[in-house]
Amino acid sequence: MNCIIIDDEATARAIIGQLCSNFKNLDVVEEFPNAIQAIKYLNQNKVDLILLDIHMPDFTGFDFIATLKNPPKIILTTSDPQFAIQAFEYECIVDYLVKPIELARFEKAIQKAESVAAKPVKNVETVNASAGSVETSSGNDLYVNIDRRLIKIDIPSIYLVEAKGDYINVKTEEKNYTVHSTLKKIEDKLPSDLFLKVHRSFIINTKKIIDIEDNSVLIKKDVIPVSRANRPELMKRLNLL
Amino acid sequence: MIQETPNLNYIEKLSGGDLTFQEKLIGIIKTEFPEEKEIYLNNIESRNFKEASEIVHKLKHKISILGLEKSYEVAANFENSLLENRAEGKADFENILKSITNFLATL
């Protein structure tokens, strides 16, 4: 397979080049410090594989892929594990390597590139379900899109989700996230044994309840209303003495 | 303050004993690191936090290559804080840069 390396960091290009040198069937034909130069090259030349950095100034790896009519196989090389889910939306991406890359992991990626003839297009839903193959996903994670970055949230750390117009506010032990989404969408992603919609604007993590009054629950410092219709389900979930 | 010492373990392992490659890579790092550090310092001085976060991102890779695992986390948090227009973690991050600068000077 002939391949090119695209990375704005000279150190990374040298490392990836060295990793490639371990494989006789892999021929690095060019290296580029930015996507623009690579596009020019690909207009004139065909390659089997691209080792592509995501995080580059001006033109990201994803922007680059969007310019390719018939993209070859691509292995992403990045320091950003949070892009893993987004990466697998692309048919052409065969693997996702988090820097610093170890030889054994690189070898696996090359083997995948060799064996993958045509990978079916997956959407995010499918990938979420099969994210066990992604190093950084455990099945307990949820990725939210904030300013074009997919941020990983540990699901059990979420204690409250609040609807705010076109947005939802996801509150976790560590941090709050404001995401352009709906309560319904996140409700479908959260495990129903842990989370419960107690009001049209609120989903709570039932394990985080501190106390309950007639029509409200206390979670952390938030007092959350419980609608009459949802109260029976909430009561069912409690280990009442 | 984080007590970690940069090391060449990753580079040595990656090279598979190829001293020429080790020398070449160290040379690239010795050239690239001070350039990136300067860009970082200029951006942070001008309070261009977004641009500073971009360069912290690049420096993060070098931090990991030099085996500084805890420092990598510090840098990652600092990068996120810069993206939120804050400079929380600046002192710790700059200590890491100092530590790497001193280490590279010994190579």
From TrEMBL, chain A:
Residue numbers bearing the 4-aspartylphosphate modification: D53
Record keywords: Phosphoprotein
InterPro entries: CheY-like_superfamily, LytR-like, LytTR_DNA-bd_dom, Sig_transdc_resp-reg_receiver
Gene Ontology molecular function terms on file: DNA binding; phosphorelay response regulator activity
Pfam families, per database record: LytTR, Response_reg
PROSITE patterns found in the cross-reference section: HTH_LYTTR, RESPONSE_REGULATORY
Domain HTH LytTR-type intervals: 142-240
Residue stretches making up the Response regulatory domain: 2-114
Keyword Transport tagged: no
This protein's name: Two component transcriptional regulator, LytTR family
Protein species of origin: Algibacter luteus
Lineage, opening ranks: Bacteria, Pseudomonadati, Bacteroidota, Flavobacteriia, Flavobacteriales
TrEMBL record, chain B:
Domain HPt: 18-107
GO molecular function: protein kinase activity
Entry's Gene Ontology BP terms: phosphorelay signal transduction system
PROSITE patterns in UniProt: HPT
Modified residues (Phosphohistidine): H57
Entry keyword set: Phosphoprotein
InterPro entries: HPT_dom_sf, Sig_transdc_His_kin_Hpt_dom
Keyword flag Phosphoprotein: yes
Protein name: Hpt domain-containing protein
Provenance organism: Algibacter luteus
